[in-house]
């Protein structure tokens, strides 16, 4: 693989302190972290669109609000974007046939910025001086508000409410002639955590932020390069994993091969530790380890740190299941599926009345009384956000006859919001930011509550304690230590309105 750096040609950052705009959250209905976005791009495959659809299926957990694909064939770009799940919108031969060509770029969206409306569905496409340009973005630009204001003052016209569009305008307005130079010029202006994949008429380009907070990997299928968010998207189409994209690296894939560039300032790698806890699919591989095995190790560490006399270990499905298995094995306590999840309940269920709304948890979960009644139970979950769901699940288990209900959490207390591409509530809405552990236990009505320690989590994930001088991961949601500057937030320049146009999907 060729290796070179883009040096003096690049414009240096302005030195302006950086800002972020956090997300607009439906506080009434969300009590879980929401997945980020998922990207999948391939070039040089006659079935590019079909492979992209399958890749997005595998990445559905990373974004469930909308999906889109842009393909390229003989100088013409084709696009299909829809709200909802991949399987609901890319499920026919007619749709696949409408996306011809040997190159395609797909994106699953969960909205961290911008409403869920069709104009906010990625990939975004623009006609630049260099030709057609499609881009899919996972993450969040922490100075998007500042840059957007500057670009609007320069005459740029925004068609979406996403920070991803800022990147396109920066590329379009760059004074450099070569497209790669334009892209790098744009990336020197942005601050944030991101993995982005772009597609032109002859190239697929992937870039990962300088700290590598958001994931991006390289794969191959019969010689065709693939850039995607997780290895599970390679498995579904029988592609080979090549490697992870390095922090700050740009990978340029064309019909002649793959070129690696180093255009961005180097920084200590700080991948998001919550990928291991919750976001990545259990069958994905990161840093040579399966996410499933890491989550079992987290559960084992949790059992070692927080011993309690119980009769049965029960996961809060599905995200708590691997940790619960590890917990049960370490504690020598039987593991049982004491809560059964209904996988056929969609996120868009219409709740017509308060009476029905109160049954929200039971729509997705039901207690398996035969494994609960008369027993001392420990519930294992990945995290506690607002605590409202945890309280309802605990009550459901008590109603099923549990003698005692204890809860063990496979992450430290989440006391700080994420500004790097994860949809989390404000600090005021996070239970761990308002209450200590004992008060949280009383609030959710458990006999005891315990979280894994920050060092315990690091040991399970990386084998060593947290380096408090130079942490190995981004763990800001637990520690409040944000490794990337929050310019918009720091300057109080959060946009109160990203768009003057109100739309209904």
Q: Whole-number radius of gyration?
A: 23 Å
Model regions low in confidence, pLDDT < 50 over at least 5 residues: 1-29, 347-352
Query: Span from first to last CA?
Result: 45 Å
**In which range does the helix fraction lie?**
25-40%
Shape: globular
Strand content: 15-25%
Please list the strands of the largest sheet in the order they lie side by side.
1-14-13-9-8-7-6
User: What would you say the CATH architecture of the largest domain is?
Assistant: 4-Layer Sandwich
CATH class of the largest domain: Alpha Beta
Largest sheet: 7 strands, mixed
Please indicate the count of domains. Answer: 2
Number of distinct beta strands: 22
- Could you say what the CATH topology of the largest domain is called? Glutamine Phosphoribosylpyrophosphate, subunit 1, domain 1
CATH homologous superfamily placement of the largest domain: Aminohydrolase, N-terminal nucleophile (Ntn) domain
Question: Would you tell me the structural class of the helices and strands?
Answer: alpha+beta
């Amino acid at each position: 693989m060729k290796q070179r750096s883009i040096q003096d040609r690049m414009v240096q950052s302005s030195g302006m302190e950086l800002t972020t705009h956090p997300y607009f959250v439906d506080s009434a209905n969300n009590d879980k972290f929401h997945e980020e976005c998922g990207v999948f791009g391939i070039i040089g495959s006659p079935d590019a669109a079909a492979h992209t659809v399958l890749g997005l299926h595998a990445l559905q957990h990373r974004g469930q609000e909308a999906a889109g694909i842009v393909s390229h064939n003989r100088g013409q770009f084709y696009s299909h974007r829809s709200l909802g799940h991949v399987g609901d919108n890319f499920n026919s031969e007619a749709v696949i046939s409408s996306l011809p060509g040997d190159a395609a770029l797909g994106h699953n969206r969960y909205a961290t910025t911008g409403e869920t409306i069709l104009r906010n569905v990625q990939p975004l496409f623009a006609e630049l001086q260099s030709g057609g340009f499609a881009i899919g973005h996972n993450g969040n630009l922490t100075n998007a508000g500042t840059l957007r204001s500057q670009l609007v003052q320069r005459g740029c016209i925004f068609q979406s409410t996403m920070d991803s569009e800022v990147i396109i305008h920066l590329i379009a307005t760059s004074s450099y002639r070569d497209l790669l130079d334009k892209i790098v010029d744009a990336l020197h202006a942005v601050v944030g955590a991101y993995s982005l994949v772009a597609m032109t008429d002859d190239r697929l380009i992937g870039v990962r932020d300088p700290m590598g907070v958001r994931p991006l990997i390289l794969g191959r299928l019969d010689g065709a390069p693939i850039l995607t968010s997780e290895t599970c998207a390679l498995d579904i189409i029988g592609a080979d994993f090549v490697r992870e994209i390095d922090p700050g690296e740009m990978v340029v894939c064309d019909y002649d091969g793959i070129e690696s560039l180093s255009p961005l300032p180097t920084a200590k790698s700080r991948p998001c530790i919550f990928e291991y806890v919750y976001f990545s699919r259990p069958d994905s591989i990161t840093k040579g380890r399966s996410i499933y095995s890491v989550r079992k190790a987290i559960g084992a560490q949790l059992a070692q740190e927080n011993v309690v006399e119980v009769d049965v270990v029960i996961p809060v499905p599905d995200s708590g299941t691997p940790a619960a298995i590890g917990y049960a094995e370490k504690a020598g306590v039987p593991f049982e599926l004491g809560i059964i999840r209904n996988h056929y309940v969609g996120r868009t269920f219409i709740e017509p009345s308060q009476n029905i709304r109160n049954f929200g948890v039971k729509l997705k979960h039901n207690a398996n009384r035969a494994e609960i009644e008369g027993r001392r139970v420990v519930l294992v979950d990945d995290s506690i956000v607002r605590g409202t769901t945890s309280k309802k699940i605990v009550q459901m288990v008590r109603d099923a006859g549990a003698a005692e209900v204890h809860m063990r959490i496979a992450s430290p207390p989440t006391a700080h919001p994420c500004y790097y591409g994860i949809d989390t509530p404000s600090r005021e809405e996070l239970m761990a930011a308002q209450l200590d552990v004992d008060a949280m236990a009383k609030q959710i009505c458990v006999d005891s509550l315990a979280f894994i320690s920050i060092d315990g989590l690091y040991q399970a994930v990386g084998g060593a304690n947290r380096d408090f001088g130079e942490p190995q991961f981004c763990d800001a949601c637990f520690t409040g230590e944000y490794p990337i500057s929050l310019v918009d937030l720091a300057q109080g320049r959060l946009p109160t309105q990203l768009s003057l146009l109100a739309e209904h999907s």
